[in-house]
Model the fold of this input.
Amino acid sequence: MRVMERERMVREQIEARGVHDPRVLAAMLKIERHLFVPEEQRAYAYEDSPLPIGGDQTISQPYVVALMTELLEPREHHRVLEVGTGSGYQAAVLAEIVDQVYTVEIVELLGLYAKRILDDLGYENIHARIGDARLGWPEEAPFDRIIATAAPERVPQALIDQLAD
Done:
């Protein structure tokens, strides 16, 4: 049943709206979004909308995740820093495409929840930690790409400094 929901989500919400990178589409089709939302939201997991995940945070709508991923132009050999882990869904999508994902979440409860889900799903190429994502992850820099799934007023200099040329 949920496989059909994911197929419909990819076909109608993502591909139909112009996302065409086959790696992004394959990742979106594979990742079970319902696992990344609270139990009471699972019936809506494949709808075209953000959903609350706790801590006054949301999981982005599937189209936004797909579009941001495609615009990032990720490549298999890339190391990506994600600013704002949230539920871990974006990190999982990226992990299907790139070599290594480093993700930082400031809300401890969300970060711990996401780490548990990602570990349970067996992602060995996702490195998650709790902290102020505006500081990045300097000891693992440089990163080929940095994606901010949170919306800062301006790009912190620390992130710019950790981006590879």
